[in-house]
Automatic annotation (TrEMBL):
Any one Gene Ontology cellular component term annotated for this protein: extracellular space
InterPro entries associated with the record: Adhesion/Biosynth-related, FAS1_dom_sf, FAS1_domain
Protein name: Beta-Ig-H3/fasciclin
Domain (FAS1) ranges: 41-170
Protein origin, superkingdom: Bacteria
Listed SUPFAM superfamilies: FAS1 domain (SSF82153)
Transmembrane stretches, start-end: none
Length: 173
């Protein structure tokens, strides 16, 4: 093969190689590709909350008999109060709530919205219907608030939903 033939062969391979490389780059960086290859979280809502230090919330979920449900298929969106949020409730009131399964269930299910509602979706809403039946108010004027609770962390993804951390326990009306 002459040097001229080799040069033509190299030139003929440059464009297809370049196109193939660009297509591969586009595919690897596209959101659809990234979502389909991202590993699915292994922990469900309850295990994710327990691992995240939501001790009082997990204790309350167990006391209300909701643990099996929140370990289920879902998907669920949980507005999860921190332990500090529960500490804002006077101890005698919190103890009484933890002993009243019906009232506790109403309070906890008021923190749960059916479906996986990511932060970008929450920011577009002005309310969301909870599993308890009533709707929470969502205010995005100064950060994000759910009723009067500030959302302090978002999009903690679990295998069966998502957790958004709030700084107060919210109560049904």
């Amino acid at each position: 093969m002459t040097s001229r033939a080799v040069a033509r062969l190299k030139e003929s391979l440059v464009l297809p190689t370049l196109i193939t490389g660009l297509l591969l780059l586009a595919m690897l960086t596209s959101p659809g590709f990234a979502m389909s290859t991202a590993p699915k979280p292994e922990k469900n809502i309850v295990d994710t909350a327990a691992a995240g230090g939501f001790t009082t919330l997990v204790t309350a979920v167990q006391a209300a008999g909701l643990e099996e449900t929140l370990r289920g298929e879902g998907p669920f969106t949980v507005f999860a109060p921190t332990d500090a949020a529960f500490a804002k409730i006077p101890p005698e009131q919190l103890d009484a709530l933890l002993k009243d399964k019906e009232a506790l269930t109403k309070v906890l299910t008021y923190h749960v919205v059916p479906g996986r509602v990511m932060a970008s979706d929450v920011a577009k809403l002005n309310s969301a219907k909870t599993v308890q039946g009533q709707s929470v108010t969502i205010d995005t004027r100064e950060g994000v608030k759910v009723d009067e609770a500030k959302v302090v962390q978002t999009d903690i993804v679990a295998s069966n939903g998502v957790i958004h951390v709030i700084d107060s326990v919210i109560l049904p009306k």
